[in-house]
Specification:
Largest sheet: 9 strands, mixed
Shape: globular
Number of helices: 15
Strand content: 15-25%
Structural class: alpha/beta
Number of strands: 29
């Protein structure tokens, strides 16, 4: 079966007959008696086997004191974690689209530590497919609730949450499963497969228009992928043409808003990959679309409508693809959504479509939407996600309806309110954090093996007293060797710039992380200066010493997090081998720490035990120098 056909399949739904499970603890927690008196709904009907994929290993280690439950459930695998002092509440998490991968995997929510620390149990399913199946994801998550309730008793309250496709699934669950769930928290989800496909059609039509592709040329092209690769994308390499393309797409997805172009560019490769798949499969509809452009476009709506390519649709395949995967607006329980202004993968127009559908269904009072100014798809900190959960809990359990953002304003640059807990770089709030005036800006030309190059990301570290600390404010791109980057000072980020410090640049190119061969002495707080640097694939470390890199979040025992700017240090005995701090700005609330070896600081012995200190207090976790962990290395305060 082709990937496009597999993407469209929904399969036959069968009764869930059995589940095999493992648990890390033989003890079984039970819900409160009052919850168990509520009648149980009939079981959900789901697939008994995965669809065209294998299932990943669901085994995982529980957090301290918690119990892990994992195994096979119908055509999916699942994970459940119950805290030592369960408060009777359950949070069910739905992950995002897994891009037609060969293996369906289950994963924990990013707010796992918060949930367990606050007494919530949580569960998650891999789902039985890696296709775009928000409706089936909601069903298979409801089946997981059935399993949980049979084993642990009915929760006093259940909340469903998800990101991206899981956010869309949360919208659907809020319409479909009020007999199981009490509230829904949806992050960065679209309004269903049909609006998503229409957005894909618009993206292609805008690109083809700017590239000068006519309807006749398109109709005569047997290979959409070749047309994109050989005709359309080369035409968009011209900066002026690319800006026209961006402007049309941005006008069609909500108009100008914070971080609109930055977000568009971050997701451009993903957007093209998915656009090619949908257009080639004849799934992207725009035959009946009347386009209305806005203030960014230099072309009139009338001209664009006359020239825009109209795409053929396989109506039978499209019906199969969207069946059960669209939002009707008929909410049956409170729904809180989060969306980023700059999201280039699921643009904020999807939040506006959702609002219109819910209002049209007469259920507007059950929907609150929150907007966060950010560049990324699902660009929220874990603290912002946790705050959303606290808000939906307060709404459901205490009747305190949360404040939200009016997404239907005429100009998204003038929103009534936004909900960042960490200010984002480029906003007035970020420019007001302690030490912001000390940042320096470097710009110049870069070469790799003697030639200018392009790179998606450029970063900066500061070398000071033998230590190395990541200090970039953002990760800008390199274009034909040209760059501009902002670097933090020591007041804003511990271990960063100040007298006696040097700045080194780093990038990813040719499948390697490369460091500059030159170092720039700290030019003085608040300054802007030119710095030309070179990179070499034969000397990937450049002027930087060898380090072990750690990144993670810092938690108190109750799962909450200390504020941005919290100092994090690594020690071997009494010798400090690394320093950083949790981030004050951006969509990541954790820390990034480089630990040096004895070639930089005597006493930072390779193979020795590392301890970590948070604002001077030793954290519970330890590890070995020169053995960086896989994934996040979170720290727990005593």
């Amino acid at each position: 079966m082709s990937s496009a056909r597999r993407l469209a399949c929904t399969g036959v739904m069968l009764t869930l007959l059995a589940a095999s499970a493992c648990t890390s603890d033989n003890k079984t927690a039970r819900a409160t008696p009052s919850a168990e008196k509520r009648p149980l709904p009939p079981p959900v009907h789901v697939r008994p086997d995965p669809e065209g994929v294998t299932l990943g290993d669901p085994a995982f280690q529980p957090l301290a004191g918690a119990r892990a439950d994992f195994g096979r459930l119908g055509g999916a695998v699942y994970q459940i974690e119950v805290p030592p002092r369960w408060n009777g509440r359950l949070v069910l998490y739905m992950h995002g689209f897994q891009d037609l991968g060969r293996e369906a995997q289950v994963s924990a929510p990013d707010i796992r530590r918060f949930l367990i620390g606050q007494g919530f149990a949580w569960g998650a399913s891999s789902f039985s497919s890696t296709s775009l199946i928000p409706g089936r994801a909601a069903d298979e998550t409801a089946a997981l609730w059935d399993y949980f309730t049979k084993k642990y008793g009915r929760p006093t309250r259940t909340y469903v949450t998800g990101q991206s496709m899981g956010g869309a699934a949360s919208h659907i669950a809020a319409e479909r499963y009020a007999n199981r769930f009490d509230g829904a928290l949806a992050l960065c989800g679209n309004a269903g497969n049909t609006p998503g496909l229409m957005g894909t059609a618009d993206y292609f039509a805008a690109a083809a228009y700017v590239a000068g592709v006519t309807q006749a040329e398109f109709d005569a092209s047997p290979d959409v992928g070749r047309l994109i690769r050989d005709r359309i994308r080369p035409a968009l390499r011209d900066p002026a043409a690319h800006q026209r393309f961006e402007s049309i797409v941005l006008d069609l997805t909500g108009g100008p808003r914070a971080f609109d172009r930055e977000g568009f560019r971050v997701e451009e490769e993903t957007s093209w990959r998915r656009t090619e798949l949908a257009v080639a499969a004849h799934l992207a509809p725009n035959r009946d679309t009347t386009y209305r452009l806005g203030p960014l476009s230099t072309v009139s709506s009338a001209e664009f409508n006359r020239a825009a390519i109209r795409l053929p649709v396989d109506e039978a395949l499209q019906r199969t693809f969207v069946a059960g995967n669209d939002v009707t607006g008929a909410l049956r329980l409170p729904l809180l959504t989060l969306h980023a202004t700059g999201d280039g993968q699921v643009p904020i127009e999807q939040a506006r479509i959702l609002r219109r559908r819910v209002d049209a269904a007469g259920k507007g009072g059950l929907l609150v939407q929150r907007v966060i100014r950010d560049t990324s798809h699902c660009g929220f900190t874990s603290t912002e996600w946790a705050a959303g959960l606290e808000a939906i809990v307060a709404w459901v359990e205490r009747g305190v309806k949360p404040r939200g953002t009016n997404v239907l304003v005429d100009d998204l640059r003038r929103l009534d309110r936004t909900f960042e807990l960490n200010p984002r770089s480029g906003t007035p709030e970020a420019d007001a954090v302690p030490g912001a005036r000390d940042r320096v800006v470097l710009r110049g030309r870069l070469t790799l093996d003697g030639a200018p190059f392009d790179a998606t990301y450029l970063g900066a570290v500061v070398r000071r007293a033998g230590l190395i600390t990541p200090c970039q404010a953002t990760l800008p791109a390199v274009t034909n060797g040209a760059y501009e980057i902002t670097v933090h000072g020591d007041v804003e980020a511990n271990g960063c710039g100040g007298p006696g410090a040097d700045i080194l640049l780093w990038t990813f190119a040719r499948d390697k992380q490369l460091y500059s061969r030159e170092a720039m002495p700290w030019p003085g707080n608040g300054s802007t200066t030119n710095f030309d640097a070179t990179f070499s694939t034969t000397v990937p470390r450049g002027s930087a010493p060898s380090t072990s890199q750690f990144a993670g979040e810092v938690f108190r025992r109750d799962g909450t997090q200390p504020p941005g700017g919290t100092r994090v240090e690594a020690y071997i005995g009494d010798t400090r081998c690394g320093v950083a701090s949790t981030q004050r700005t951006g969509n990541y609330s954790g820390y990034k720490l480089d630990v040096v070896g004895p070639d930089s600081v005597p006493g930072c012995t390779l193979g020795a035990t590392l301890t970590f200190h948070v604002n001077g207090r030793q954290a519970a976790e330890t590890t070995v120098n020169n053995t960086p962990p896989r994934g996040s290395f979170d720290l727990t305060l005593p």
